[in-house]
Amino acid sequence: MSWKSRLAELGVELPAVAAPVAAYVPAVRSGSLVYTSGQLPFVGGALAATGKVGADVSPEEAKAHARTCALNALAAVEALVGVDAIVRVVKVTGYVASADGFTGQPAVLNGASELLGEVFGEAGRHARAAVGVAELPLGAPVEVDLVVEIGE
Predict the structure, then answer these.
(1) Name one Pfam family in it (predicted).
(2) What average pLDDT does the structure give for the chain?
(3) 88 near 124, Cβ under 8 Å?
(4) Buried-exposed string 80-108: b where 16+ CB fall within 10 A, e elsewhere
């Protein structure tokens, strides 16, 4: 089964690639790796939420936004090489705009990690960093980037 078929089976549709908000491209290939730029939780061209997790945005909402970020990252891969070229997800890095004292960044990033596991199974198991930050671009609560290995 192709990864696109698996997405369809899960009822998940890849969005259009989010337009860059600065001077960068959504994804770059280097050898057998594709690196995505950090993806914000854009839905239909608009940021789905703003604010800090643990104050303005609940951890559960942020987890859903991390899932959206991962879908946006997969859309960037799709536009560059196609998701069916993915051999495995290598690394996920997530940034969480955190209220003072919020330490639940790993649980928030599970939104991205769990989606990748649902889609790619064992090939979706990855290394990860979940980082709490003071602010993110445009006031977003979460940002996610991926590194994926692709086949020829």
Answers:
(1) YjgF_endoribonc
(2) 96
(3) yes
(4) bbebebbebbbebbbbbbbeeebebbebb
Task: Tell me the C-alpha to C-alpha distance, in Å, between residue 19 and each of 43, 63, 83, 86, 152.
Answer: 11, 22, 19, 22, 27
DSSP 32: T
Q: From residue 135, how far is each of 14, 96, 125, 139 by CA, in Å?
A: 27, 8, 28, 6
* Residue among 76, 113, 72 at smallest CA distance from 92: 113
Sign of CA dihedral 17, 152, 93, 125: positive
Rounded CA separation 112/63 (Å): 8
Q: Is the pTM of this model over 0.85?
A: yes
| Confidence band, pLDDT 50/70/90 cuts, at residue 8 | very high
Query: What SS3 state is found at 90?
Result: strand
Q: At residue 150, what is the residue type?
A: I
Token readout for 78 is 């799709």
Among 80, 81, 142, 71, residue whose Cα is nearest residue 108: 142
